[in-house]
Amino acid sequence: MRLFYEWGIKQLKKKGEELCGDSVGVSRHPDSIVLALSDGLGSGVKANILATLTTRIAMHMLENDLPIGEVVQALSETLPVCNVRNLAYSTFAIAQFFADGHARVVEFDSPLAMFVRNRAIHSVDYEERSIEDKKIYESVMDLAYGDWIMFVSDGVLNAGIGGRYPLGWGWEQTARFFEKNVHSNLSAQSVAERIAQTVSDLYNGNPGDDVSIVVIKARRKQVATVLTGPPADPEDDSELVARFMKARGLHAVCGGTTAKIVSRHTGLPLEVDLETMTPDVPAFARIEGMDLVTEGILTLTMVNELLQAGTDQDDIKYKTDGASELLRFLLNTDHVHFIVGTAVNPAHQNPELPRQLELRLSVVREIAEKLRERHIEVTLESV
């Protein structure tokens, strides 16, 4: 069993502050993800600096494969305590989630993590120990497909204080809300945003504390292969199509000639849906067993422009043109493998055409760069 961890982050600034006094860091590695959440004492710029320092130290050490125990030791020895309030200048929660389901969570002075399995809150078993006179809570967990974990800062638990919840929303109320608002069809980001909106409502739109929410969803990895363009040598058509068809996960074909090659070598009919044509984007087509079939360079170029403009899922939620379909396809995967044929299409070398149409490979490379910025793994091969 190999788990894939999807994460969602949402933060709210305390009313009247320019910066959030919390800091969150998450990074992906080949077999794990690393998380650090810190809440700086107070709010504003000073709190932000202290919290950011904490997360950067933790992330740097974890990313250099130092044992999590050493990271905790270093943070405990580094973080000072306010002599007036007898509080740490910043709190932290750090965690590592491994592909085999093993996870380790360590927390200091931060709200304990919330764990949901099968739509029900489950307790997390912590061991308490002391490092540099600081009480550290540590847990080792075994996760499975469908598990959810949430980390929050104090601002979440304090929501509603003095109003609907005289003592604040609290851990129990927050955990029950989390429990009722997760299911397999939701993304980690959408859950984080739903909880943040509820917190904002409890504060009447004016948060009385900095708010940070990090949601982790354990699931199967979604992989996809995109075949675009014929190979340089037509003799390779048959082998390329066979390899493409055997690739695990989702399959997309981009290009009219490419689609004809796939149809010919699989014996499956190619049907163009002319009703999906728009003034800007050519129609897409259908081949049995393919998840998506679109036109080639024009559609890819439009997808690249959408990514460069920062377009996200919500922006194209109700659009059904080929470029929107392809962009949704790409954004809904965790790992995309592009197979780019390098056969020259004379029409695309016309000097009167826009420069971005000249080379398919350069457009795909730009798409790959933008997808990586969105934490999507991308590999690319040219044939």
Task: Calculate the terminal CA-CA distance, rounded to whole Å.
Answer: 32 Å
Spatial shape: elongated
Strand content: 25-35%
Order of helices and strands: EEEHHEEEEEEEEEHHHEEHEHEEEHHEHE
- Please report the total strand number as a whole number: 20
What is the assigned CATH homologous superfamily of the largest domain?
PPM-type phosphatase domain
Specify the structural class.
alpha+beta
Spatial ordering of strands, largest sheet: 2-3-6-7-11-10
Q: Estimate the mean pLDDT confidence.
A: 89
- The CATH class assignment of the largest domain is Alpha Beta
Largest sheet: 6 strands, antiparallel
Total number of helices: 10
Q: In total, how many domains does the architecture comprise?
A: 2
Q: Which residues sit in consecutive blocks of at least 5 with pLDDT less than 50?
A: 352-358
Under CATH, the topology of the largest domain can be stated as Phosphatase 2c, domain 1
Radius of gyration: 25 Å
Helix content: 25-40%
CATH architecture of the largest domain: 4-Layer Sandwich
